[in-house]
Amino acid sequence: MFKTLSCCVQFDSEDTVVNLPLPECWVVSKLHLLIESVSASYDKFYFGEVGRETYDFFWADFADWYIEASKGRLYHSGVGGKSVASVAQAVLLYTFENILKVLHPFMPFVTEELWQLRLLRITALPNRKHALIVSPWPETQLPRNNNSIKKFENLQALVRAIRNARAEYSVEPAKRISASVVANNEVIEYIAEEREVLALLSRLDIQNLQFTNSSPGNADQSVHLVAGEGLEAYLPLADMVDISAEIERLSKRLSKMQKEYDGLISKLSSPQFVKKAPEDVVRKVQEKATEAEEKINLTKKRLEFLNSNVLVSQ
C-alpha cells in the first residue's frame, strides 16, 4: 500500500475535506476533532485524557472502521479504480502520520521508529530527512464536516444492526446475504453511494442489495431491522438460515431452558430454601430465574416467527 503512494496530501482546507467520499470525509473530520481536543488536553496537562481519546480514535474509528472500509477501495478495479485507491491511500497515510504526532510525547521511541519506517517505504515524501521529534505539531482548527460524521454514523448503525442479526441467527461469517435498505430519498442517496462499503462490512451480496422508500414485497418473510430514525433494513430469512433446521435447534434449546427455569422456580417455591438460604443466594436465584424467563420468551417469539414463515412458504 505505502510503496505505491507517490505523494503526500494535506487535508487542511475546506475543499479538500468536503469533497472526499463519505468514509474518508468522516475519518479526516474525526481526526481533526481529535487533534483539537488532545492539543487542549496537553496544554492543561490532562495526559490521561490524551491517551484515552487517542486510543479510542485509533482503535474504534481508524482501525475498526476506516481501515476495514478502505480495503475494498485499495483493491478497487472498477471505473476510476486507481483514483479511488489513491484517495484511500492518502487518507490512510495522513491519518497515520497525525496519530504518530499526537502520540509522540507519550511514546517517543516507538513513534519515531514508525515515522522513519514510513520514510523508507514512501519515496516521494517531502522533508525525508526530518525526524518526527522536529516535525511541526498538527494545526488545530482544521476543517471538519459534521454532516458527514452524522451520515457515516447512520451507516455504522446499519452495519451494526445487520451484524447483530447475522450473529443472532448464526449466519456463517463467509456467507453473503441479500438485503433491502428502506429510508427516505436523502438517506438512500448517501447510503447507496457507499453500497460497496456497506456490503463489505456487513457481508452482503451486493448484487442483491436493494435501496427503496418502502417495505419490500417479502417483508413478512424477512428479519426487520431498525438501524435508526428513518433507516431500516429487511433481511430475507430464507437467505440467512435453514428455517426447518433452525426451528429444530431452537425447540431443543427451549426445552432445555424450560427445565432449568422450572428448577429455579421450584427452588424459589420451597419455603425451606427461602427461609434458610442466605439472602444473597436467594437473590441470585431470583435473578437467574428472571433472566431465564426473558430468554425463554425471546426464543418463543423467534420460534413463532420462524413457524409463520414455514406456513407462508408452504
Automatic annotation (TrEMBL):
Residues 240-309 form a coiled coil. It catalyses: tRNA(Val) + L-valine + ATP = L-valyl-tRNA(Val) + AMP + diphosphate. One of its GO terms (cellular component) is cytosol. Residues 26-178 form the Methionyl/Valyl/Leucyl/Isoleucyl-tRNA synthetase anticodon-binding domain. Gene3D superfamilies: Isoleucyl-tRNA Synthetase, Domain 1 (1.10.730.10), Valyl-tRNA synthetase, C-terminal domain (1.10.287.380). Residues 242-306 form the Valyl-tRNA synthetase tRNA-binding arm domain. GO terms for molecular function: ATP binding; valine-tRNA ligase activity. One of its GO terms (biological process) is valyl-tRNA aminoacylation. Keywords: Aminoacyl-tRNA synthetase, ATP-binding, Coiled coil, Ligase, Nucleotide-binding, Protein biosynthesis. Its EC number is 6.1.1.9. It holds the Pfam family Val_tRNA-synt_C. This is valine--tRNA ligase. It comes from Sphenostylis stenocarpa.
